[in-house]
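anyone seen this seq b4? input:
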Amino acid sequence: GHGWIDTVTPESRTKIQEMLREAVAEGMSRRRQVNHLSASGVDIPVAYTAVRLGGGGKQLVAVGRDLRSVSALQQRLVEAQQSLERDYWRMRHIETRYRLLFQVTTEAVLMVDASTHKVVEANPAAVQLFDQPLKKLVGRTFPFDLERGTESAIADQLATVRAHGRADDVAVRLTSGDRQASLAVSLVRQDSTTLFL
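predicted toks r here
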């Protein structure tokens, strides 16, 4: 007993008027989404097409498809997108802090690919410790510039870290400047790569 236009939200009323006009003039309207009012206060989205019945009269049939499941899916998609964006910015913030810490720490730090043992990254303190430019450090196979005889202790340390995630520090002597140092190794996973720090 209600007018079709009175069952929809104010924003949808012009769409109903357009569908009615098109159906009368052309026999069928284009499909449009309208939102129906509900007792619970949650709008019900429905996609309608209006069709004029034969005989040139003004009797119309409106055929609609309930879009609540599509609407719920779209809402979940929007929420997932927002969650991804929040995670992305949080990760960017963490990466920025890591980069800053990596650059300003006074301890020499090398990032070494765990499978190839090639240096992936070195901080300024490592450049100074090994007295080599960054370009020469990156790509070198670790260990290097350490006194002979410590290779087996370092290999054991790396194997222990790979198996258990941590190992005791190893005392080493650098060949450049004949200095003693303590080698601490930990495991870091970055994307699909495993690195020694």
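The first helix runs from residue 13 to 26. Strands lie at 32-36, 44-52, 60-66, 110-113, 119-122, 170-174, 179-183, 187-190, 193-196. kinda curious what u guys think
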